Amino acid sequence: MHLPPHAIRPDYAGGSVLNLAATLGAHFGVPTHHAPYRHPLPLDGARHVVLIVVDALGAGQLRDAITRGDAPTLASLTPTPGPVTSVFPSTTMAALTTLHTARAPAEHGYLGLTVWLDEAQAVVNLIRLYDVYTHAPLADAGFLAAVPSLYRQVRDRGVAAHVVMPAAYQHSVLTRWACDGAEYHPYAQPEETPELTAATIQPGQASYTLVYFPEYDLICHGSGPDSPEAHAELRRTDRIVADLLAALPRTGDTLVVLTADHGQSPQPPDGYVDAITKKVMKTALRGPVAGEERAAYLRPQPGHHAEIAALLAPHATLLTADDAWTGGLFGPPAHAGARFRPRVGDLIAVPHPGHAIRRPTSPAPMLGLHGGWTAEETLVPVLSGRV
């Protein structure tokens, strides 16, 4: 599997969010077949771990924010001494589910915002659980819960598990599975998270808590990661993290780790590619394009592979899904779930920097995107501190 020079492969051998989650779980006795996180974390004697996830906060975005003076609190935490990657695709459905489960995308099956599901014979939006072409709801989503959550596993070992997340997500199918075993602490505004997080730290009871901030990602999509709006939201997040750190009991046995599921890259409006039209979809593909605008999964009709490749080759790197799967792009092949392989189609197109594949089922064009393998999308920060 040959990737372009700008491509960053997920470092599942010890330098990815997968390994970070596995090591945090292992600290509480959860077994893992994945390599430990290779960068040192001050875990010795930690009875409580608080993992803060700022959606879409790429390593480069954080570096620029610190340079601007927008993130003094984050700048005060200890950064990892080496690069850390997201997963592939570098998108929330794949990466955040990895943080919830300590499993690679090829193991948990959430391989993008939309995927082909053999079980439904449709391309399905995994957040809203409907057929992206007909909008018919997925009748039974129980089969999507493929692996146990990390929270259930730590709870089974006598550790209290908590998630501090928006109230709007509390009853979704994904949340009920991925956060199974955790006590859910819903918030309406992010400013509520310091008090909610501090309440999860109880004397005499070891605990694992995840705090999730999705707002920065939403603003980066709408206004672009380099926009004043995104900068303002990151300043807000930094202030909230400062309040959260101040609210925690000063017992010395709490480790706070901050990371992201992925980064974001600016998306020029004129970089959207309209190669997959409704006509092409109906004549040359076996159903809608799945995946992401920055990592598309296609299922060409027999005899139409070359036609689809020719349409996309000027704008994207193409690889067969078989090569990507066996080459470990979605996770170590030894632990990949064979039943998930069809979900990524037959042909994968990863657009060149600045490009995005628009399709008939795409939402309105966004000014910030992720999903691909550029440094902006793939490299994420890991910061830590003891409280």
Automatic annotation (TrEMBL):
Reading the lineage from the top rank, the first entry is: Bacteria
- Please report the name of this protein according to its UniProt entry: Phosphodiesterase
What is the organism field in this record? Answer: Deinococcus actinosclerus
